[in-house]
Design goal:
One of its GO terms (biological process) is regulation of gene expression. This is NYN domain limkain-b1-type. It comes from Arabidopsis thaliana x Arabidopsis arenosa. It holds the Pfam family NYN. The structure is a single chain. The protein is α/β, with parallel strands linked by helices. It has helices at about 10-15, 25-30, 65-80, 100-110, 120-135, 150-160, 185-190, 255-265, 285-295, 310-325, 350-360, 385-390, 475-490, 510-515, 530-545, 575-585, 610-615, 630-640, and strands at about 50-55, 85-95, 110-115, 140-145, 165-170, 195, 235-240, 275-280, 300, 335-340, 365-370, 395, 455-465, 495-500, 520-525, 560, 590-595, 620. It is globular, with a radius of gyration of 28 Å.
Length: about 650
């Protein structure tokens, strides 16, 4: 995200060397979707933190001024208005700057630039993340035309102001100074800086433009314009319910609806201090009925968009504001957030999956129920909401369930015994549940971090073009056969498979779901060119390595690659053998299988598959941890007794 061109090659090594003391918010943003073991400390980060968010497409850099001076002038302007800037950062957003020279000039000036096709969406999300990662009373300055014209953005910024953040807008007035000279002098910047209520930040005088947002007229309205509070104390559970897609029963009163939801969540070991926010573009109740819902802690959110994408954006922002009001330090058990709504795919911009997985990485309980996965006959009033919540998916258990194996001693498996997949909790359904028919495929391309598992881990990266799966085996049989064959060769652990398929013929959605529920991830948009495909696999393996640190597992993780390698065309060129040898040198077990070495008339036959294929593999190294001092003493004592 915020790496300069010259820093991209060393970004991983740089992150490994950073400690939190010298890590900036930009580093946190870069790490937030990568390392599941990275925990943002809850103590105060900076008393005088000031962050500027600048839409560089709305307010471009003038030709007659360099980025260094812009940085200095903005900081001087804020300090001149008595905003402390001992910890000061500027983040710029846009899609027009492509030249590496310009990008390096920004980074050299201390301005971190993020290229994005929807700068406003990215900027608002980072503003919220900044608020979560820093204490209230921090200063947030927004330099954007389009953000100030968006009602939802103003609503979120007003909500941050109500939580103690100082929110400033840069808005030059035509009669005083044109935007072309905005960054030339600190005085011009000070005269163009306003508070959310429309007063000038420097002298509190009224402004001709006042940012307003609709407010709720109900007395007990909970629309996140003000901080939310817990009634019972202890850990919270926030439920965000899309009533448009999953309506409440008409024959139940508000208190009965709340009690039923509370009772069913209690069976799932979720905190019963529940608050429910209901989202519908049209509220079919009178104010008297809404008051009854409010008293039952079911809050119908006002001014909800009818458009699905806009509604998801609103819900995600409210979830972020709820997180601000539910810090981890306030209770011994982590708060939980539950979303009942169908997700959307906006190419990584904003979605429930991205939001909830990020919260899970910050140690919140995160759950998703998609109504489209629930059969209509299961929505009867007498069972409501039993079958809705029975389809709940926990982001702590998606596709990587905790194994019940004891990894101290490996049990010998009989040839005629079927391979058992790791057992999972019976209380919370994972994606293996038949109730969850549409799988969440947001992370099958390793865009998001892989959750940790109990015991060792095996990562299998399979080039399906070089070695297709047998056509007469279903996905579960494919997974089980690979698991058993690797176990016979001494590779033990919770296995996940990434299959690289170039999509000459698209795979039907129902078949993709079967593959993923079996633990086989079909990587989308794998390049047809072999060299590009290997490059993609290498990058994904390095991401897998980042998510599988050696210090987390007692037994070294194993990496299995099924793909034909190719020699580098020039000195220093990278190929699979080179990368895998380096990973083995860092302590990972590595096996490279090149299907071209398999001498069979019908390599796609399932009779001997995949044992015959793994037999031609090249073991690049088997690693084991050194014995503990106690083990060394026991071994020495045993040797002395035997002599």
């Amino acid at each position: 995200m915020f790496f300069s061109p010259r820093e991209k090659k060393s970004c991983v090594e740089t992150m490994d060397d950073l400690t939190f003391e010298n890590m900036t918010f930009g580093d946190l943003i870069s790490l937030r979707s990568r390392n599941p073991n990275f925990v943002i400390p809850t103590e105060e980060i900076s008393v005088s933190y000031t962050c500027v968010f600048w839409d560089i497409d709305d307010y471009p850099i003038p030709n007659d001024i360099n980025p260094d001076l812009i940085y200095s002038n903005i900081k001087s302007a804020l300090e001149g208005m008595d905003y402390r800037c001992s910890d000061f950062e500027i983040f710029a957003y846009g899609e027009k700057i492509k030249d590496n020279t310009e990008l390096n000039e920004l980074y050299d000036a201390g301005i971190k630039y993020s290229t994005h096709n929807v700068p406003d969406t990215e900027m608002l999300r980072d503003i919220v993340y900044c608020s979560i990662n820093h204490k209230s009373s921090s200063n947030l300055m927004v330099i954007s035309k389009s953000l100030t014209e968006d009602t939802e953005s103003i609503r979120v910024l007003r909500a941050l102001k109500s939580r103690g953040f100082n929110v400033l807008f840069l808005q030059p007035q035509p009669e005083s100074h044109s935007s072309e000279h905005l960054f030339h002098y600190p005085d011009i910047l000070r005269c163009s800086t306003y508070l959310l209520d429309g007063r000038k930040a420097m002298d509190q005088t009224p402004s001709p433009d006042v940012f307003t947002s609709p407010s709720c007229s109900r007395s007990n309205c909970q629309d996140f314009s003000e901080p939310t509070t817990s009634i019972l104390g202890g850990p919270k559970t926030g439920v965000f319910w899309d009533v448009h897609e999953c309506p409440f029963p008409n024959d139940l009163d508000p208190e009965a609806i709340y009690k039923r939801i509370q009772c069913n969540l209690k069976d799932l070991d979720v905190s019963t201090d529940i608050s429910i926010w209901a989202y519908a573009d049209k509220i079919p109740f009178s104010d008297d009925i809404l008051d009854k819902f409010d008293k039952s802690r079911i809050y119908f959110v006002p001014q909800v968009p009818r458009d699905k994408t806009a509604r998801v954006v609103r819900m995600v922002h409210d979830i972020d504001l709820w997180e601000l009001d539910s810090p981890l330090v306030d209770s011994e058990s982590p708060p939980n957030v539950i979303v009942i709504s169908n997700d959307i795919n906006t190419q990584g911009d904003i979605s429930f999956t991205r939001c909830l997985r990020s919260m899970h990485n910050r140690h919140y309980g995160a759950f998703l129920v998609q109504p489209k996965d629930i059969a209509q006959e299961n929505l009867k009033t007498e069972d409501w909401p039993r079958w809705i919540l029975a389809g709940i998916v926990s982001f702590s258990q998606i596709r990587y369930p905790v194994s019940d194996k004891k990894w101290k001693k490996k049990e010998k498996i009989k040839k005629d015994k079927a391979v058992k997949k790791p057992e999972v909790s019976s209380r919370v359904k994972t994606q293996d549940s038949p109730l969850v028919k549409t799988m969440i495929r947001q992370d099958e391309d390793l865009f998001y971090p892989i959750p940790p598992v109990s015991g060792p881990r095996i990562g299998v990266f399979w080039d399906v073009n070089d070695s297709p799966f047998p056509g007469d085996l279903d996905p579960n049989s494919i997974y089980q056969r690979i698991d058993l064959a690797l176990e016979k060769k001494g590779y033990e652990g919770v296995m996940s498979i990434w299959a690289y398929y170039t999509e000459q013929e698209p795979i039907p959605g129902f078949l993709l779901d079967k593959y993923q529920s079996a633990g086989i991830n079909i990587v989308p948009k794998a390049p047809a060119n072999k060299t590009e495909r290997v490059d993609r696999m290498i990058h994904d393996m390095l991401f897998w390595e980042m998510d599988t640190p050696l210090n987390v597992y007692v037994t070294p993780p194993s990496l299995i690659v099924i793909s034909n390698d190719f020699p580098g065309e020039g000195e220093g060129d990278i190929n699979l053998t080179f990368v895998l040898s380096c990973m083995n040198g860092r302590g990972y077990n590595v096996l490279l299988v090149e299907p071209k070495k398999l001498a069979l008339d019908n390599p796609g036959s399932s009779a001997l598959w995949p044992g015959c294929l793994l037999d031609v593999g090249q073991t690049l190294g088997l690693c084991s941890w050194p014995p503990s001092s106690g083990q060394k003493r026991r071994k020495k004592k045993h040797v002395e007794e035997s002599t």
